[in-house]
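Reviewers of the previous submission asked for a worked example of the structure-prediction workflow described in the proposal, so we include one complete record here. The input consisted solely of the amino acid sequence. No template or homolog information was supplied to the procedure at any stage.
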Amino acid sequence: MGTSSAWINGEVITMTDKEARAEAILIEDGLITRVGTSDEISALAKDKKISITDLDGACVLPGLHDCHVHVMVTGTASMGVDVYDAGSVAGVLKALKEESIRNPEGWVVGVRLDESRLTEKRPPTLKELTEAFPDRGVFIIDRGLHYTLVNQKAYDEIGLTGTEKGLCLGEDGKPNGRLHEDANKIARGYYNDSLTDLQREKAIRNVEKMALAKGITTIHAMEGGGMLSDHDIPVFDRLKGQTDVDFIVYWDTFDIDQIMARGYDRVGTDLFADGSIGSRTAAFDEPYTDDPSTCGVLYMTREDMTRFIGKALKNHLQCGFHAIGQTGIRQVIDCYEEAFKEYPWEDARFRIEHFGFCDDRDIERAAKNHIVISTQPAFSYLRGGPGSVYQIRTGVERERKAYPNKKFLDYGITLGGGSDSNVTPIDSLLGIHSAVNHPYPEHRISLYQALRMYTIDGAYCAMEEDKKGTIEAGKFGDLTVLADSPYRVATDAIRDIPVLMTVKQGKCVYRSGQE
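From that input alone, the workflow returned the following structure tokens.
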């Protein structure tokens, strides 16, 4: 049961309509029962002996969503050193050396590696890592999770045989420490399976704290499966109802029987159809501009993908796939259409995560098939535009067309907004800011449309629009209280609006200055 509380003298953006506003909210036992004027809500609260909070003009939004977070990856990042800003291979090695001194036992772990930001435009090799650390395992995680780096010690401990798919070779024909595809799954599984349940819970709690400070009350958690660990899932299950953030778990497994046995009503939806731009594994029809030897990677056959989607639809499980490149996106839609013919389900809300570099024909098909897109506006804002890594990898023409949120909405597609943390930070205001400040004006959307992505449309993506996403009677009393209205500040200042309070089912669970 939730908390009873009243909130008055605010600028309440209810999100029930573009212009809908109110002054006050009454919440009883965790549910909104009345929205209206301050005088009206104050009188009702006093009559019911419910505590009243004066918002003193602050702006109130429905509790914000983040529709794509890797909770365990984000929460365990503190267990390693962040090498995102290392600058060079030497800088990465220096950061790892310092980390090895701080934590003298176990493997030396690096997180958020972005090779495009290194001077050499390549990551450290197995040889370089082994020379620096001959007696300790080294394990470095790409910021997009699409590959891992290891030294010889970690390679041997993981038990790699040299025959695994995705094991990259150097000029000498020997493994160079870079692990993609099956090799990456094996390495990440080995590392993640070694975590204790206490470490897993701590990781979840770390993310809970981060989210609340950003006004986020619901997270769509992309967890488990070959890239992480299925041992994480029971910990999420055990904590359900005990956290101040709702973690909606999307279990990235192909084992639908296990999904059903545990009572889940969704499967996926961050199962990889292809990879990422940074690692040149997102799948395209044409080669990468900066590496004509590759067009990226498709990780599944059409037959296997269609069979999996069909089984999910047959059992009324929401499902979906990660797809960034045009070829990956096309394959996912092709397979969904084929599966839907055999197992039609009108409210499937099939999700495609990212949908970045797409053809117009596939936008039209996504709309026709009522596919929802879970996208990350901060990708383009932080990683796109002239001279960006996206443009370097894919060329001017392809990059200019990427992540066309306005076109998605023009076709009537529902968009959910997320961060893909820790690829970009858990910060829904940054996502809203990014959506209205896209590097290319033709892809910018209105503030109202951007707010929908992180409120009512975010809730729709998880089939929760009946209880979340707007401020109206019958919905959860989930609120985000801001120091100013995004409608009042300059467009380029939305990301800087302070979060004053986060309210979960009527209870204030975060207050600025009282962390």
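The chain has a mean pLDDT of 96. We consider this example representative of the routine output the project will generate in years two and three.
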